[in-house]
Amino acid sequence: QVQLVESGGGLVQAGGSLRLSCAASGSIFSISTMGWYRQAPGKQRESVASITKGGSSTYGDSVKGRFTVSRDNAKNTVYLQMNSLLPEEAAVYYCTGVTPGRRSWGPGTQVTVSS
User: Fold this and answer.
1) CA torsion 55→60→61→63, rounded to 10°?
2) Do 69 and 35 meet the contact criterion of CB atoms below 8 Å apart?
3) Tens digits of per-residue pLDDT, 75-103?
4) Contact 49, 61 (CB under 8 A)
5) Dihedral through CA 68, CA 73, CA 75, CA 76, nearest 10?
6) Which helix H or strand E contains 96, and what residues bound it?
7) Rounded CA gap, 51 and 72, in Å?
8) Do the bridges between strand 10-13 and strand 109-114 make them parallel or antiparallel, or are there none, so unpaired?
9) What is the pLDDT of residues 3-26, one digit of tens each?
10) Contacting residues for 16 by C-beta, under 8 A, at least 6 apart
11) CB atoms within 10 A of CB 37
12) DSSP H or E segment with residue 111
């Protein structure tokens, strides 16, 4: 079993930056892809970015060029650097980790973007 805990959320002005972190524990050697989703009030959860164990990353179209996902396998941590944040990107951001037959989720961290 994998446990994930996010940190780094908070309040930022539009156009500002935040860096989220997600620390994994438990059966960490079984984790392949890790990533980030977000969910705003009244909206569906959407994929933001993901990164494989080998470092290959993918991004949602709306964040390409502004967000960067990275991973430190030695620290069992995945990061999300978010730049040029928009007010509509205020949401709860969730870390996710994929193991064989299962996707695990962290409890989420709130990101608030003031206009």
Assistant:
1) -80
2) yes
3) 999 999 999 999 999 999 999 999 999 99
4) no
5) 90
6) strand 91-99
7) 11
8) parallel
9) 999 999 999 999 999 999 999 998
10) 85, 113
11) 22
12) strand 109-114
